[in-house]
Every structure is written in structure tokens, then in C-alpha cells.
Amino acid sequence: MRIHKLLVAGALLPFGALAQDLDYTFVELSYLDTELDAGPVDLGGDGLGLTGSLSVTDSVFLFANYQTQDYEFGIDGTSYDLGAGMRFGLKPQLDLVGELAWVNYKVETALGDADDDGLGIGVGLRGRVHDSFELQGGFRYVDLEDSDTFLSLAGRWYFTRTVAAGFGLSFNDDVTGWNLGLRAEFGN
Asked: What's the whole-model pTM score?
């Protein structure tokens, strides 16, 4: 039901035909900040993320994400995704995007390590609201030992045709995170 509302709302936004297409070939470096609700204790952490995407056809792209974060109490976390996605043009400068990925999470503590992998499935909208401003939002389901569904929202300001600064939020019942990033695009 939520996805349906998101799609309808996105289709009604005033996206117009602009000079630049959405680009799916890019590299993005981000600063990450995350708060985890770990039962009786909340853990805060920060780190770096690196994301890359390569457009294979007009509709298909491949992507990879890597994140590393240091949390309180000497806990370190790393994750990476490898996957493929498809974009469907709903309107000029508005795409419905679907992704399927293999995901891996690793946590290292003084008491031992934990490692888990599984599948991630995502769906969302991405669109330009102005020549220099882009919005993106969606849902992502990650199926590991415990499954989770995340909501994410992001915006990017293009200060040149191919370079953008961005801000993003992602959250669910147990995790709240934000990021600041710098993206360089190579496809347009």
C-alpha cells in the first residue's frame, strides 16, 4: 500500500522535460552517520561509503556499494552490495527504479565477529525537479538472518552538469542513518 501511494505521489509531481537525462553511470563517496537501537543500548557510529553504478543499456544498470563504520564500544561494521537494476521512464525526468542485489554484512567486536549475506530488493522513484536538483525515494527489503525493510529519501544539488552534492536519510524501526555525499556522473 505504501509503495502504491509513493508511486502515485511521484507521478503527480511537476517534473518537466529538462535538458539533461538521469544518469546511471556514476561514482559517489559519502560520509555516513548511523544510530542503531540494539535493545537496551543505542549505538552510534560513523564512517564512509562508496557507491558505483554502470549503465549497461538505456534501461539496465549494474551497481556496487561498500560501507565501513566505527561504532561505540569498539564495534566495527562493514557491508557491501553487488547487483543489477532497471529503470522505467514514467515521465521525462522521472524514473521508477527496481534493484536486486546480493548483500553482505560483517560486524567485528572484541567478543567475536558475525558475518551474514542474503538478498536485497528495492523499488523507488528518482527524478529531476529542476535543472540542478534531483530527488529520490524508495523502499528496500533486505533478507538476511533477520529481514528488514528500509525507507530512504535523498536529494542532490548539481553544481555542474556532472558533479553533485547530496544528502540522504534511511530508516526503519531499529536503524536511523543520514549521509552527505559527492557524486560524479560519467554517462551524459
From this structure: 0.85
